[in-house]
Amino acid sequence: MKHKEIIIMSILLYLAVFTPLNTGLTDEEIRYFHPHHHQYRWLTWEIYSIVKSECYWQKVDYRIILALIDAESNGYKMATSKSGAVGLMQVMQFHYRSNRPERLYEPRRNVHIGCRIFKRYLRRARGNIVYALRNYERGPGGKGFNGRYIAKIVQNYYGRL
After folding, report:
1. Which of 67, 98, 131, 148 is the S-S candidate for 125 at Cβ 3.0 to 4.6 Å?
2. Where residue 44 sits, what CATH number does that domain have?
3. Is residue 115 in a domain?
């Protein structure tokens, strides 16, 4: 009986250590990634892999999220706006209900919440990226339209397709 338990535990340990996580990254992307991407100079392997895996699981195009991060924080993890939005995707505190708001600066958590918010706005806009970006910037009931902000994101997104 002890022998079978040891074998099962060793197999489980082997699978836990040597089985790669499915992040949505291809072997070619992992092999040929250059930290100074031609479009986003701030893009590091850490941010790219976080964005790619979150977008893979939430079924959002990672290129629009990279363009959104570029416009919101220029890739600066500790960015804070005047209105109180924080992190890579400039997520507001009320989207993250926790007694530890400083955790919103963590890139994985920030990108996860930001992707979820953008996906919700994209669904409400029935796939219209411009309306989804307007809602992401101003909030769902926000008035006004910042053309430069949206044009920058759309140009980064559509210009590279």
Report:
1. 131
2. 1.10.530.10
3. yes
